[in-house]
Automatic annotation (TrEMBL):
Name listed for the protein in its UniProt record: Fructose-1,6-bisphosphatase class 1
Source organism per UniProt: Abyssalbus ytuae
NCBIfam families referenced in this protein's UniProt entry, alphabetically: PRK09293.1-1 (NF006778), PRK09293.1-3 (NF006779)
Record-listed Mg(2+) 1 binding positions: 93, 117, 119
Origin superkingdom: Bacteria
Co-factor remark: Binds 2 magnesium ions per subunit.
């Protein structure tokens, strides 16, 4: 059966039975994310025309300058998710703590928590380079009907029931998994509908693209430095190509299609690297593994890390399996 041109709505319904807990709520949740994605996409695409470019003048919980679109995307996703009786809690890169939903309604049966990076790579907005939204969905582990606790958010990535991203690039795509492979949907802006354009996405076993901010080279651990030099050496299928957009979603998306590795290691100036475990590394790692790729902190599987803090950072190496294995060899030798 040719699945192409299925709409996202049709795909969700057709695949609902394959969801581990097919009660229809996860389908409603993915649909809510789809709606929020369209709203944010509309704002991102006109960012250059109205006064939402540039910094909001606020500092987020990370101590980073907030872009106006960061704030807007955060508000749109939280508002869309809150308005539907599906989730009981939300955590966001832009919020210090988690947001409890329906805590005063003792009868609510909402059982999912969502963690989001509402606009990753937002420093690229003012220079018209692609950015993305990343989301991660878990079933709560505390009793339904009670207010969520931090325990519901600090789950290892292996517990995710769904994860994905929206990439606001030359076209807008929603790419997600519910644990049964990775599928990509492209938005037809003329009619506001996402169509299945990339069924069953898979990482090539290896690749020739490495993505890392080489401006930090002097601060990297020796093993990472040695791997970069390995990528640049004229030998076998090397030197590789260096491609780094400064937007995790964009670098990951390209590498998943073409083959490659994305790296944000720890360094002498960032002892755990920069990327956040809960709403950047875990969802991207879930997608990577579902697409026959690999994701590690340099030693073990990202998805098996037991989180201790909402905004904790981890070193991140993710992409084609053979490339990730090779950088782990260099790290082990250092
Ligand atoms: P640097 C964006 O802020 C982000 O979290 C990722 O999307 C991106 O890959 C990385 O940080 C860029 O960080 O330090 O290289 O500018």
């Amino acid at each position: 059966m040719d699945l192409r041109n299925r709409t996202l709505g049709e795909f969700i319904i057709e695949n609902q039975s394959s969801f581990k807990y097919s009660t229809g709520e996860l389908s409603k949740l993915i649909n809510a994310i789809r709606l929020a994605a369209k709203v944010v996409n509309h704002e991102v695409n006109k960012a250059g025309l109205v006064d939402i470019l540039g910094a909001s003048g606020d500092i987020n919980v990370q101590g980073e300058g907030q872009q106006k679109l960061d704030v807007l995307a955060n508000e749109k996703f939280i508002q869309t998710l809150k308005n539907r009786e599906i989730v009981c809690g939300i955590a966001s890169e832009e919020e210090e703590g988690f947001i409890t939903i329906n805590s005063n309604d003792k009868n609510h049966q909402n059982k999912y928590v969502v963690l989001i990076d509402p606009l990753d790579g937002s420093s690229n907005i003012d220079v018209n380079v692609s950015v993305g939204t990343i989301f991660s969905i878990y079933r709560r582990i505390t009793p339904v009907g009670t207010p969520v606790t931090m325990e519901d958010f600090l789950q290892p990535g292996i517990n995710q029931v769904a994860a994905g991203y929206i990439i606001y690039g030359t076209s807008t795509m929603l790419v997600y998994t519910t644990g049964d492979g990775v599928n990509g949907f492209t938005l037809n802006p003329a009619i506001g509908t996402f169509y299945l354009s990339h069924p069953d996405m898979k990482f090539p076993e290896t690749g020739r693209i490495y993505s890392i901010n080489e401006g930090n080279y002097v601060h990297f651990p020796q093993g990472v430095k040695n791997y970069i030099k390995y990528c640049q050496k004229e030998e076998d299928d090397r030197p590789y190509t260096s491609r780094y957009i400064g937007s995790l979603v964009s670098d990951f998306h390209r590498n998943m299609i073409k083959g490659g590795i994305y790296m944000y290691p720890k360094s002498s100036i960032a002892s755990n690297g920069k990327l956040r475990l809960l709403y950047e590394c875990n969802p991207v790692a879930f997608l990577a593994e579902q697409a026959n790729g690999k994701a590690t902190d340099g030693h073990g599987r990202i998805l098996e890390i037991k989180p201790s803090e909402l905004h904790q950072r981890v070193p991140f190496f993710c992409g084609s399996k053979k490339m990730v294995d090779k950088v782990m060899e260099f790290i082990a030798e250092q």
